[in-house]
Amino acid sequence: MDLLSKKCVPCEGGIPAMTMQEAQKYLKQVSGWEIYEQDGVLKIKKRFKLSTYMDGISFVNKIAELAEDEGHHPDLEVGYAKVMVNLWTHAVNGLSENDFILAAKIDKL
User: Fold this and answer.
1) CA 10 to chain centre
2) CA 51 – CA 38 distance, rounded (Å)
3) Residues 42, 48, 54, 55: is their CA dihedral positive or negative?
4) pLDDT tens figures, 58-109
5) Is the per-residue pLDDT at 42 higher than 70?
6) Collapsing DSSP states into helix, strand and coil, what is residue 97?
């Protein structure tokens, strides 16, 4: 099933985080995202280039609305004409399908 047609599902933990191999399969379904490891936790990130600072703020607001609708919230960093989006599932301390669903939907914004 296409990631865009899915909805993030509430995650309370109790399931394992994705392995690197599983995450790489999902990574093929999103554009420009990369997997990285921070303190032993797999995460994905993408840097978006925009024209102005206010374009970045507008983009962040759209991401925030989407994140609320999906019930899955990224870490966002805003700079001049750029936004960095970092995703992982806190409840599993790593990556889950929700991260890739939200990544795909952010790309559509």
Assistant:
1) 15
2) 29
3) negative
4) 999 999 999 999 999 999 999 999 999 999 999 999 999 999 999 999 999 9
5) yes
6) helix
Q: Which strands form 82-87's sheet, in the order they lie side by side?
A: 34-38, 41-49, 82-87, 75-79
DSSP state for residue 9 in the 8-state scheme: -
Phi, psi for residue 48 in degrees, rounded to 5: -105, 130
Q: What is the pLDDT of residues 47-59, one digit of tens each?
A: 999 999 999 999 9
- What is the DSSP secondary-structure string of 46-93? EEEE-SSHHHHHHHHHHHHHHHHHHT---EEEEETTEEEEEE-BGGGT
Q: Is the pLDDT of residue 31 over 90?
A: yes
| Residues found in the chain | 109
* Prediction pTM value: 0.94
Task: Give the separation between CA 57 and CA 8, rounded to whole angstroms.
Answer: 24
Amino acid at 42: L
